[in-house]
Write a structure and sequence with these properties.
Shape: elongated
Oligomer: single chain
Radius of gyration: 17 Å
Order of helices and strands: HHHEEHH
Number of strands: 2
Number of helices: 5
Helix content: 55-70%
Strand content: 5-15%
Length: 123
């Protein structure tokens, strides 16, 4: 389920946190679903368990999950963290939009780029 892009500039723990948020938003994870144990996910992804642990801690900090000592990490019921995550992505988008405008891209070209991206994600 989780995948890691080793060539990405995004740290691995961030990729995991982002995927947790995505899976919640898509309904793959439901409130109170348990995340895979740290060691299990680390083994599946071929990464250090400390990286998974850091991702789980960050997802809890972002209010996507909660932990129960001795039991594991679970999806937060209120998922307020999803709203926060969406706002962060919107802010990132607006920053990219401003940079493109500053570099001379027209609004029409940016809209075409968004349409192209939208088309790519629906296939």
């Amino acid at each position: 389920m989780f995948t890691i892009e080793t060539r990405s500039t995004v740290p691995i723990f961030e990729q995991i946190v982002d995927q947790i948020g995505k899976f919640i938003a898509l309904g793959v994870f439901k409130p109170d679903d348990q995340l895979p144990p740290v060691r299990t996910l680390a083994k599946q992804l071929g990464i250090n368990p400390n990286t998974v642990s850091k991702a789980y801690q960050e997802s809890e900090f972002r209010q996507l999950t909660y932990s129960v000592p001795g039991k594991g990490s679970f999806i937060n019921e209120d998922c307020e963290g999803i709203s926060i995550l969406k706002q962060q992505v919107r802010d990132d988008f607006m920053e990219v939009y401003r940079k493109l405008i500053e570099l001379g891209e027209s609004q029409e070209d940016i809209i075409d780029l968004i349409k192209e991206a939208s088309h790519d994600t629906t296939n």
